């Protein structure tokens, strides 16, 4: 049917997209592995979601913070370092996602919160998965929480995966 | 505030070595939408692999009435009709697709659900979200916020689908 084929072409086989946010922390790798285990482990069958792994690379200016006299000199080094660490993150993510044939990997510059919400918009994702650092209330207020922001502002379902805590 | 759980009607879910999913509902429309979404997207595609579903309805404490029933004084809780109604709707939704267990927990919704999730060793908790703005969230308190921070398992928050988004 003509409609079916055009719809399929537009949506990419009609599968829903899932965006997974990753950074260098153990928590986000755990989140990625958990997601793979539970949503992409189908042996032989095609997974129902298409996976997009997104890493947000902070801009060098935001990483340096207060601008002092030597700031301009430092920026290129900071930039190079950030690029390297993003590449490391994506490489590790690629390793973990080896079993998923058509996963997308992206590094986008900007603040993690906005990057993830925009990625959701762009891919028209059904689901966003993020890890959580497990900060307490105070750290959360001071440092800000990407998972908090995303769960309120993303236009899709958000899944927050935490490493299990061991209660005393 | 303690949360006790009483199993409502519903056949026992097939507890195979698969994923255990807990879906928390209240009487609101959004949570039933969340349940439907969860069934379609997460549970149904996997029904062969042994997913067990538990639907938990959290019921505010002061509303319940306790009647001593048997001679040795076992008290059962009488749930107000809204809880039973939403449980029944939820059961209907689910039983067309997959077999599930229902549970009603009492006490403060947030803590009760948190405790239930821990006791049941859930692999995933699914909730609806009322879409409260920042200020309402701070004053009214948000069950989904609390659970995201305190549940011992991954939490999936289903947003109300906006009509203008497609």
From TrEMBL, chain A:
<dbReference type="Pfam" id="PF00582">
    <property type="entry name" value="Usp"/>
</dbReference>
<protein>
    <recommendedName>
        <fullName>UspA domain-containing protein</fullName>
    </recommendedName>
</protein>
<dbReference type="InterPro" id="IPR014729">
    <property type="entry name" value="Rossmann-like_a/b/a_fold"/>
</dbReference>
<dbReference type="InterPro" id="IPR006016">
    <property type="entry name" value="UspA"/>
</dbReference>
<dbReference type="InterPro" id="IPR006015">
    <property type="entry name" value="Universal_stress_UspA"/>
</dbReference>
<feature type="domain" description="UspA">
    <location>
        <begin position="17"/>
        <end position="162"/>
    </location>
</feature>
From TrEMBL, chain B:
<protein>
    <recommendedName>
        <fullName>UspA domain-containing protein</fullName>
    </recommendedName>
</protein>
<feature type="domain" description="UspA">
    <location>
        <begin position="20"/>
        <end position="159"/>
    </location>
</feature>
<dbReference type="InterPro" id="IPR006016">
    <property type="entry name" value="UspA"/>
</dbReference>
<dbReference type="InterPro" id="IPR006015">
    <property type="entry name" value="Universal_stress_UspA"/>
</dbReference>
<dbReference type="Pfam" id="PF00582">
    <property type="entry name" value="Usp"/>
</dbReference>
<dbReference type="InterPro" id="IPR014729">
    <property type="entry name" value="Rossmann-like_a/b/a_fold"/>
</dbReference>
């Amino acid at each position: 049917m003509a409609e079916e084929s055009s719809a399929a072409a537009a949506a990419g086989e009609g599968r829903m997209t899932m965006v997974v946010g990753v950074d260098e922390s153990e928590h986000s790798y755990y989140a990625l592995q958990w997601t793979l285990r539970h949503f992409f482990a189908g042996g032989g069958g095609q997974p129902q979601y298409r996976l997009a792994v997104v890493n947000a690379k902070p801009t060098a200016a935001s990483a340096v913070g207060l601008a002092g006299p030597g700031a301009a000199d430092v920026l290129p080094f900071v930039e190079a370092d950030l690029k390297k660490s993003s590449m490391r993150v994506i490489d590790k993510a690629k390793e973990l996602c080896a079993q998923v044939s058509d996963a997308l990997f992206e590094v986008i510059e900007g603040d993690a919160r906005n990057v993830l919400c925009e990625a959701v918009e762009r891919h028209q994702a059904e689901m966003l998965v993020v890890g959580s650092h497990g900060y307490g209330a105070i750290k959360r207020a001071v440092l800000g929480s990407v998972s908090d922001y995303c769960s309120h502002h993303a236009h899709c379902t958000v899944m927050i995966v935490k490493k299990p805590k061991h209660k005393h | 505030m303690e949360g006790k759980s009483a199993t409502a009607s519903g056949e026992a879910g097939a507890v195979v070595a698969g994923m255990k999913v807990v879906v928390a509902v209240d009487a609101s429309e959004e949570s039933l939408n969340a349940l439907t979404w969860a069934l379609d997207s997460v549970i149904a595609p996997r029904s062969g692999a042994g997913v067990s579903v538990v639907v938990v309805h959290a019921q505010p404490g002061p509303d319940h009435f306790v009647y001593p029933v048997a001679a040795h004084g076992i008290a059962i809780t009488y749930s107000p009709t809204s809880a039973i109604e939403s449980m029944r709707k939820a059961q209907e939704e689910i039983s067309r697709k997959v077999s599930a267990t229902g549970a009603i927990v009492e006490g403060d919704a947030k803590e009760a659900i948190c405790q239930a999730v821990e006791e049941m060793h859930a692999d995933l908790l699914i909730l609806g979200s009322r879409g409260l703005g920042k200020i309402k969230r701070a004053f009214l308190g948000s069950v989904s916020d609390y659970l995201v921070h305190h549940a011992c398992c991954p939490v999936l928050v289903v947003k109300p689908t906006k009509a203008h988004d497609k």
